[in-house]
Amino acid sequence: MRRIARVGLVAKQRVDAAGTVLTDLAAWLEARHIGVVFEAETALLARPQSTMAMTSKEDLPKLCDLIVLLGGDGTLIGMARRIARAAVDVPIAGVNFGSLGFLTEITLDDLYPSLEAVLAGEAPIEDRMMLRARTIRNGATFADEFVLNDVVITKAALSRIIELGVSVGGDAVMRVRADGLIVATPTGSTAYNLAAGGPIVHPVVDAVLLTPIAPHMLTNRPLVVDGTSEIAVEPVMNGNEEVFVTFDGQSGHALLGGDVIAIRRADRPLRLVRSASRSYFDVLRQKLKWGER
Known about the structure:
Strand content: 35-45%
Shape: elongated
Largest sheet: 6 strands, antiparallel
Radius of gyration: 20 Å
CATH topology of the largest domain: Rossmann fold
Strand order of the largest sheet: 8-7-18-15-10-11
Mean pLDDT: 92
């Protein structure tokens, strides 16, 4: 990992308690001769000064060697997608406000020890697979998105069961008649995939998960494929079906007959700074309450 010369700070909005932490953190970094760049809305939480360096969420990844994020998993996912769009390898350290997160696993008590480890080049940094999903419409790219957790193709609230054709590497795999389909990364295996009955997969496993949502046929089971697989999902429109695709639950659009969602591993993984005091299984046990009576 290259030397950290500039750190970007971003926080979940409307979390007033982050203001003091941000101010103290900026002072701590500057005392170590490390530049600080605030995401513009985050700067408002930290009592902005005229000398404070600020930029947009979209530009922040290009200006930093490390991003420290204060918030929850949703805030981190949003920044991960911006890092992917910027085509940079800047690592991100997620500091949780509230309950421990699957992604924002660094607690406030761990913040400064974790940053000391990062600056010393000793912090555990994990590569997390991201997916790139393109909606192909009439032979052209209609939408092009990056996701950390999942791509979800689903029916509208009042629609009947939808039918989806799924292929992997050009080979037809299955026709799914269900409420929808989740295409998830190992990181996303503990998100919507888990609620839909899909397997938990360790985040460093090179795999992609295909999990039907409430399938009509019990033989439509979750499927785990190689991480290098190219996946295509095509809705089969026979009438007035309303089908939508969403990306990490943060953006999406309606699908038309003939549309194809083409999904493959993104060129760059997300580089996630891990907590030095707890493992992935520690987080899993705590979040899922394993071992409790």
